[in-house]
Amino acid sequence: HVFILSNPFPTDVPQPVLTVSPSWTSPGDSVTLTCRWRFFWYKAVPQLSRYSYTPELLAGGTNGTEQDSYILHGQTHTAGYACRAGRGDPVSYTRYSGVKFVWSGGVNPAASLTVSPHRLQHFSIESLSLICEGNSTEWRVMKVDEDGDVFSCSYWGEMTGSTCNTDTRASSGVYWCESVTQSSNAANITIHSELLFI
């Protein structure tokens, strides 16, 4: 009989290749197990009309990497990233990871976020305007809340042109502007509940 590992996944899900070294050992020897995949790294490109992101392979990533980490050099602006793994030729891929963001507080002349009133601490009863400026004609304001969930302005405010005006649904989180080609500086805004003193 041939013994195989029972597999709860469909047969079209890619399977990694496991190697062991050495195959024969003496008592007390160390053994290295290596699970072989190729990893593919993507930038998340905003799709403004669909409230989503499209994965775009990072430079030099067509063939993937055998390392399970990827170093971005010279990061200068806010951006989202994702990854997935694959095996075989042609490559059979896993699902994409979720999008994770890297935020920049630095000034980007091509895209900027202005908070009005001009501060990072606000009360929940205040209205708040988030203004996008830069080299694009269409913007959306985004937020990642304290739970890591991503929302666009339409969920907690109203987008008018390049300005997001919030109501009392605004909450603490990291806010930024994005277009199809640009992302702005990010602002970590804290929203406090109103305290009433009698």
UniProtKB/TrEMBL annotation:
GO process terms (BP): cell surface receptor signaling pathway; immune response
GO molecular function: transmembrane signaling receptor activity
Family matches, as InterPro entries: Ig-like_dom_sf, Ig-like_fold, Ig_Fc_receptor
Keyword Disulfide bond: yes
Alphabetized UniProt keyword annotations: Disulfide bond, Signal
Metal-binding in keyword set: no
Superkingdom of the organism of origin: Eukaryota
A cellular component annotation (GO) from this entry: external side of plasma membrane
Name this polypeptide is given: Ig-like domain-containing protein
Protein source organism: Gasterosteus aculeatus aculeatus (three-spined stickleback)
